[in-house]
Amino acid sequence: MTGEFERRYGFPPGINQVRTADREDQAAARTLARESLISVDLSTFYGSIGEVTWADVGNGYFLDTAGDVLLRLQEDGAVAIGADHQSHGLVIGSDGGGLSYVAAPDGSVHRTRTASLDEPELDKVADDLRQFLELLERALTQFIADGVPGSL
Question: What is the pTM assigned to this prediction?
Answer without folding.
Answer: 0.89
